[in-house]
Amino acid sequence: MLFLGFSAGLPILLIFSSLSLWLREAEVSRATVTFFSWAALGYSFKFVWAPLVDKLPVPILQTLLGRRRSWLLLAQFCVILSIWWMSSIDPASGQNSLNWMALAAVMLGFSSATQDIVIDAYRIESADASLQALMSSTYIAGYRIGMLLAGAGALFLADAFGTRMGAYSFEAWQWAYRIMAASMGIGILTTLLIPEPKRELQQEQAFSTKDTLSLLGLFVCVVAAFIGGYLITQVLLPFKDTLTALTHNKVLSGVLIETIRLACAIAAAFASARILVGLHWIDRQLVSTSYVDPLKDFFSRYKVTLALLLLALISVYRLSDIVLGVISNVFYQDMGYSKTDIAAIVKSFGLAMTIVGGFLGGVLSVRYGVMRILMLGAILGAGTNLLFMLLAQGQPTQWALIGVISADNLSAGLASAAFIAFLSSLTNVKFTATQYAIFSSLMTLFPKILGGYSGSIVDTIGYEQFFLLTAFLGLPAVLLILAARKRLELAPVRFK
């Protein structure tokens, strides 16, 4: 899990913080930089293709490696190709280059999200419930080490190769990203060496070629309908100015329009699936087994009221953390910190604090229960965001940054370990990949949509008020944990 966590943690910062610094050095606007965080929305919709990972074999590779490892190897190769593609694009060359960079980043997000689906399933299937908290903390440690390499490592490399603010060098970033692509070899080697989980082998189902192709075809059509629906609704973009005139809030108008576009795209995807099922393109029972049964199982185990409460908690638990994280590197750069400062303090020292927090969260979850540590993590996560207000008010000293990063990353590691254990406890091993993908997708969907507007929000209200806003965004999670904890104590549910 340590090495698989490394493989999972490496790609994410190449879409977020490292890419944001690259784009800023290439003189891309702050608002455009934070919009790039939407390239990782694949993480928030991975439940759509998680059933494919659960049900479909990878030709040839499955015979050699097994279901989980074959998908894992395929996803890792796609991650490498995506990073290499990003390294070949210079974002300073104009809008067309930015469009290609966005497409490459979307492919990286899709590939990395697929890898996450398989690793989550592998972790849950490879150990009993009693070990999930410690498995999670070990996975987080590896994940953070991967983030260290993609964050601090990429920044150190880019700096060493000769790029900085005001003296941009595409070749420096190109080689930094290519070294990141080569580092994914650790994940590939791990995949080739680990055993296939025995539980997964016992529950594999045989599918005919027709079933395989029809499920794959359904997925392709649904994705095409989603993209088509989103593109068609571009006609709504001119209404942003009208809404801005009515609300006197440009950011709110943008969020409303993009939310409507996203809802229309989801509706188009759902309608296309219903039509194809109605035309008998795919067997209803196969659709039910792949998509409907995992949801029915969750709602039958927790009943409707508690299930909805848990889903609401999942969707807001990391809201304050993710929204702040999207713009954090840009904030450090705007405050005057160098890439070396960011790499050494935020990425390297911050990693150590996150790992300590992760192991602490795992141990405390075993000792005191997941829900108690989940509450502690929610309170600390919202509270430490207020420290960024103090950082924004003062001079950019290294000791101030060390203090803020220590508190923020320690609480983030603790909360993450408890939250992963919490999500694992909600998962039925009969539907491991699909159910966990749904939970982890909900966890990031709304935060990432809102995070894409963080640059625009900062341009409107400034950093100090933005950090205060992110602290308040943590309050719903605290209230929902209180409500969910009471109901779970009244109706305890055990692992299946």
Description:
The chain is mostly helical. The chain has one domain (2-490): Growth Hormone, Chain: A (Up-down Bundle), CATH 1.20.1250. 80% of the residues lie in helices and 0% in strands. It is built from 23 helices and no strands. The protein has helices at 2-15, 17-25, 30-35, 50-55, 61-65, 67-87, 95-126, 132-160, 170-183, 185-193, 198-203, 209-232, 239-247, 250-278, 284-316, 319-335, 339-368, 370-393, 398-425, 432-451, 454-461, 463-472, 475-490. Helix 7 (95-126) runs antiparallel to helix 20 and helix 8 packs antiparallel against helix 19.
CATH H level: which superfamily?
MFS general substrate transporter like domains
Tally of structural domains: 1
Instruction: Tell me, rounded to a whole number, the average pLDDT.
Output: 82
The biggest sheet, with number of strands, parallel, antiparallel or mixed sense and barrel status, is: none
> Whole-number radius of gyration?
22 Å
Large-scale geometry: globular
Stated plainly, the CATH topology is called: Growth Hormone, Chain: A
